[in-house]
Amino acid sequence: MSDAFALAVGKAADAALPRLPGAGVAWLDAARRAHLAAFLRDGLPSARSEAWKYTSLRALGQRAFALGDPEAAIRAVDAHALALPGVDGPRLVFVNGAFRADLSRFDALPDGLELQPLARALARDAEPLRDAFSATATDAFDRLNATLAGDGVLLRVAASVRIAAPVHLVYLGAPAAGDLAWHDRAVIELGEGAELTLVEQHGDAGPHANLGTLVSDIRLQRGARLHWNVLQETGAGATLIRRSAFRLAADAAVSLHALELGGALVRHAITAALEGDRARFVNRGVFAPGGRQHLETRLDIRHLARDTVSDALWRGVADGRGRGVLHGAITVAAGADGADAQLGNKNLLLSAQAEIDTQPVLEIHADEVKASHGATVGQLDERALFYLRSRGLPVEQARALLTAAFCRAALDGLDNAPLREHLAARLAWHLPRLAGDPEA
After folding, report:
1. CA–CA separation, 4 vs 12, rounded Å?
2. What pLDDT, in 10s, does the model give residues 87-106?
3. Are 91 and 104 in contact (CB under 8 A)?
């Protein structure tokens, strides 16, 4: 780890730890100090680390970031721009990692839904959050987040409660006096038989080159249902590192749709432990790096019980000098008989300088298993392109239509039609547009 990054983290931590929410709680202070010591000992991973071989952190390691934004509460944000079609439920908004009550909407919550900023929950009673903050963190950014997370989300749905309106979580980066780092955490629990739709949105309120980390711990009890939709289009200079860790009990189900579109360096690690019989994890996504963007998605799905199902379908489109990475690992543990595990990743390269690295991994230790994985990297189908051109479409329009259709499959199964169409429109905006398009 470079001196710049290490010194900035160590200095920020020494000053920040006594002021973080929950400071003074013995077990929480000890956990934060242990995570910090492990981070300072091992530092940022190098290219020799298998998990980071395609994502270089050399440039990041040379930078120093201030911790947090003392003026986050007064950063200008267009509140009207936060609205999403089909999303009219409670909303929590964070600007440079800090909660903004003036932009949020959660005063009149439906019965059975607990929703509050994590800082408030830590200050009132940290004990129920012990598992989330004391868990072993083996990744450098997990350790950094566990040390310095100052806010985030606590969301609980009571047993047998169905929350009809989607809950909206918004994370915005904003320009400040210099580059800063923010660290937020989300703790989400669905009780037995509960159901929730969650929309997670990442954006910006102006140009910046901030670093953000977000760790989400999501636990579903027996029979719970979670519909999770992610729109990531953070600022063009931003670095955003996230981990979303799911634990599913028997008969629980997660449906995830994700668009990874923004940022300079973005990495999203998704882990899912199917711990109960008949648990189900379905995930669909698109990553579309352009310019010099680097977008990485890592899937680690573990079948640990009988008759579990995972179904992953991802599309990648790279243009300019963009680089995309998808690592998809599925493990079927001993005793997880009857598991059904599917992983598919198809990718398009739209320029000679673009690059996509895809790594499907399948490890099976059980009998009576259905499993398959496949990955392709190629270019647009010349026959389909010729067909559209023969019908009178200009080549740019034909290419744009084929690219959009290729990606649209990742949004199939999203039942919220207004939100689905909005996500499709945002995806189309980020894809290469027609020559002469006024928005290009």
Report:
1. 12
2. 999 999 999 999 999 999 98
3. yes
